[in-house]
Design brief:
about 280 residues; alpha/beta; 8-stranded parallel β-sheet; 9 helices; globular; disordered N terminus
């Protein structure tokens, strides 16, 4: 990127105000209608859980938030209306307290994610938009054109689309080199950012794949950022930021490193201490 003061800001800079942002997951407990939903505690308990995690994360020095219905196991390709409404209501309740840019992810329904994001004025969504996969949920065949058309229809063009091109819990039916896929989805499917994941939530992303995607995009003169989407830990964040344009972190900030536990303030503090070292080293 040019050092000129007139150089255009990257997608990440335009959202988070800096390059190589740290985006922390804000995991929702199970929503109404899902098998693990707590009927006795209801939606109020969901909001209380989110508020607790937000209080820790927003005071930690991270750069952004990503709300996700992580508790809604087993995951689905088509989210019910009750879940969409509950997630929008929960985020909407907390909007006056949000001080950081935030996004939405609904596993695994891009249309639902975009609907919620538009309603709560989020800046981006993270989803699987392209490809055909053999997944834990069955045959996975998203329709990126349908999502892009819907985004235009509802006037949500300001919401950036973060493409997860190596999704968790799945493998492509016809594998292609990751660099080829990254270049293709940027050019033909209009991706705003590329995400590389591990095999499941909390599993480390392959840094070689991140590098391959970055090199392919650079060779094609495309400035689209490539982020590590899963598995970044206190012990690995420095090495990850040396390659990736940013990270999305959830499990690594939880008590005992367990995805569905609450956020651990000590882990967040130690994680961000490593981030600061990585940033200082990059400036030398």
């Amino acid at each position: 990127m040019s050092e000129s003061n007139n150089a255009p800001r990257s997608v990440l800079e335009s959202i988070f105000g800096r390059t190589k942002p740290i985006i922390a997951m804000v995991h929702l407990p199970p929503l109404p209608g899902r098998p693990l939903y707590n009927r006795q505690e209801g939606v109020t308990a969901i909001i209380d859980s989110l508020r607790r995690d937000l209080d820790i994360l927003q005071d930690s020095g991270i750069d952004g938030l990503l709300f996700c219905n992580e508790g809604d196991r087993p995951y689905s390709f088509q989210i019910e209306q009750a879940d969409v409404a509950a997630m929008a209501a929960a985020i909407g309740e907390l909007r006056p307290q949000l001080r950081l840019p935030y996004g939405v992810d609904m596993l695994w329904d891009p249309m639902a994610a975009l609907s919620v994001a538009h309603a709560v004025r989020a800046s981006f969504i993270r989803e699987v938009f392209t490809g055909v996969y053999d997944s834990d949920m069955g045959l996975w065949q998203p329709d990126v054109a349908k999502v892009q058309d819907y985004r235009a229809k509802i006037g949500a063009e300001n919401i950036r689309l973060f493409f997860n091109i190596e999704p968790e819990f799945a493998r492509p039916l016809s594998p292609r080199p990751v660099g080829e896929v990254a270049r293709s989805v940027v050019v033909s499917s209009l991706a705003d950012a590329i995400l590389i994941s591990g095999v499941m939530a909390g599993a480390e992303a392959n840094l070689d794949h991140i590098q391959d995607a970055k090199e392919a995009l650079t060779a094609a003169k495309l400035a689209t950022p490539v982020l590590a989407n899963t598995g970044v830990r206190i012990e690995t964040v420095r090495a990850t930021l040396a390659v990736a344009d940013g990270v999305i972190v959830g499990t690594g900030l939880k008590h005992d490193g367990y995805t569905w536990n609450p956020v651990d303030p000590d882990r967040v503090r130690r994680f961000m201490a490593e981030v600061r070292i990585a940033r200082e080293q990059s400036e030398v």
